[in-house]
């Protein structure tokens, strides 16, 4: 009888270990971003995944669509893109430095390849920035990113279509980042 109880506990323990070890790549990537954020200073809010909509720009459905899109992109390419919306960039004076420091703080992309990409949007400040790691910048130059902002994203933003601007911008970035 005692052997039966011990056997059941061992089987239950093995099953729970197995269930814990089958984490998806998405959860590992998000967890890596979140853990990196927690380990650093509290200058920036904690990441909530590939899409951190702190300003509340997107509907829940839109945020989920973007999250799925970026998750699928990461699984397909190994590259991480995050979208972040914020009401303000204090204590920063310009969104460029804010975006670069946020990306570094969160550890976006592969550390060795320095291949992360972040889109930081503030509708309140009427500013947007695409921040690339040095590895990414070899393909997606500042000029290419600024052109995507000016010709694809901003026309949608001017009409209040923030989701569509981000979505179309992500498509253009993915097309260029081959």
Automatic annotation (TrEMBL):
Origin superkingdom: Bacteria
UniProt keyword list: Signal
Keyword hit for Metal-binding: no
Coiled-coil intervals: none
Record bears the keyword Endoplasmic reticulum: no
Record domain TPM: where: 51-175
Signal sequence interval, chain numbering: 1-19
Protein name from the UniProt record: TPM domain-containing protein
Species per Swiss-Prot/TrEMBL record: Nonlabens marinus S1-08
Top-level taxonomy: Bacteria, Pseudomonadati, Bacteroidota, Flavobacteriia, Flavobacteriales
């Amino acid at each position: 009888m005692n052997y039966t109880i011990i056997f059941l506990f061992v089987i239950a323990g093995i099953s729970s270990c197995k269930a814990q070890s089958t984490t998806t790549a998405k959860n590992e990537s998000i967890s890596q971003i979140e853990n990196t954020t927690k380990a650093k200073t509290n200058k920036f809010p904690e990441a909530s995944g590939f899409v951190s909509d702190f300003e509340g720009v997107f509907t829940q459905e839109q945020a989920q669509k973007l999250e799925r899109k970026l998750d699928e992109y990461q699984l397909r390419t190994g590259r991480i893109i995050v979208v972040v919306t914020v009401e303000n960039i204090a204590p920063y004076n310009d969104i460029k430095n804010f975006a670069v420091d946020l990306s570094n703080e969160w550890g976006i992309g592969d550390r060795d390849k320095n291949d992360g990409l972040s889109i930081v949007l503030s509708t309140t400040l009427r500013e947007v920035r695409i921040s690339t790691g040095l590895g990414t910048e070899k393909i997606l130059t500042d000029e290419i990113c600024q052109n995507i902002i000016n010709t694809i994203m901003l026309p949608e933003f001017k009409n209040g279509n923030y989701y569509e601007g981000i979505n179309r911008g992500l498509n253009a970035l993915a097309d260029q980042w081959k």
